[in-house]
Design brief:
Layout lengths: L1 E5 L4 H10 L4 E4 L10 H11 L3 E4 L6 H6 L1 H22 L3 E6 L22 H16 L3 E6 L1 E3 L8 H11 L2 E5 L3 E2 L1 E3 H14 L3 E4 L9 H11 L6 E5 L13 E2 L4 H5 L8 H10 L4
């Protein structure tokens, strides 16, 4: 297949391109080569490259930044997605879109399934949910994938796992919230699942995260310190009320892959196994 990937320089995009290029012709685009906020540019690029499928990963994922600048959030995350979806519509090709568990309000006591009703609280969550609705209104063939707490990319990891490792090497104590829960998701496993999803032809909305329950941020931090062999630093549980942030953080950001379970497609391994493997490859 000829696959066009937006956001190819990101944490997931890099891994998607690496894996997909082993079997397919991949066109990797970045913010500097493809401004998804401009429909004319998007249309021209699709016409020039003539892809068979598009994987849309480009997004503004700074949750607090989105809260401060909603216009930019909707331009990139919602209208940018609309432009990509319209380009897919013009060429009659399927679209894979990476969404987020942030489309839910976080009030549930259990991990969210694909059959729960979204109710986003943050600008970021609303911009991603509006993107989902736009895709569903424009296309017949689409895969909307909601993922969880991402980790991967080694030294380029700027998300939770990367931050914990960096701060643990600089401090003897880490204050980590114990009242926020989520689903760790390894980019290597997610990229492989996206390729399988495309090959399946099973269109719709999917949650794809590593299995194994819903750890708190505190639980996850302790696991990271243990697996990385860091004994000079300890995690201290604190309440999220101790931190003042521009954007609200859902209590529950964990997901259950109910649709894949019902289809008998158990692709994702438990997150402790995935995270342990990831940490074993990093420099001490």
């Amino acid at each position: 297949m000829r696959i066009l990937v937006t956001g190819a320089a990101g944490m997931l995009g890099t891994e998607v391109c690496r894996q997909a290029s082993e079997r397919h012709e991949v066109f990797a685009t970045t913010a500097s080569t493809l401004d998804v906020g401009r429909h004319d540019v998007v249309f021209c690029e699709f016409d020039r490259l003539r892809p068979d499928v598009a994987i849309h990963l480009a997004a503004w994922t700074d949750v607090d930044g989105c809260e401060r600048d909603p216009d930019r959030a909707y331009r990139v995350n919602t209208l940018g997605t609309q432009n990509v979806a319209l380009a897919c519509q013009r060429r009659d090709i399927p679209l894979i879109f990476l969404s987020s568990i942030a489309v839910f309000d976080g009030d549930s006591l259990e991990p969210y399934t694909e059959f729960d009703t979204p109710n986003p609280r943050s600008v970021y969550g609303r911009s991603k949910y509006q993107a989902e609705l736009t895709i569903q209104s424009l296309l017949r063939r689409y895969y909307i994938v909601r993922a969880g707490w991402m980790f991967g990319s080694g030294e380029r990891d700027k998300k939770f796992v990367g931050k914990i490792l960096q701060r643990a090497r600089e401090s003897s104590e880490l204050r980590v919230v114990d009242d926020k829960f989520g689903s760790p998701t390894y980019t290597v496993d997610l990229a492989r699942a996206l390729e399988r999803l495309v090959e399946s032809g099973l269109y719709g909305v999917f949650h794809i995260v590593n299995s194994g329950g819903a750890p708190s941020r505190f639980d996850l931090a302790n696991f990271i310190l243990e697996c990385a062999g860091i004994t000079s630093c300890r995690a201290i549980p604190v309440s999220s009320a101790d931190f003042t942030l521009p954007a609200p953080r859902p209590r529950m950001e964990a997901a259950r892959m109910l649709r894949l379970e019902l289809l008998g497609l158990n692709w994702m391994r438990p997150w402790p196994d995935a995270l342990r493997e990831y940490l074993s490859h990093l420099e001490p």
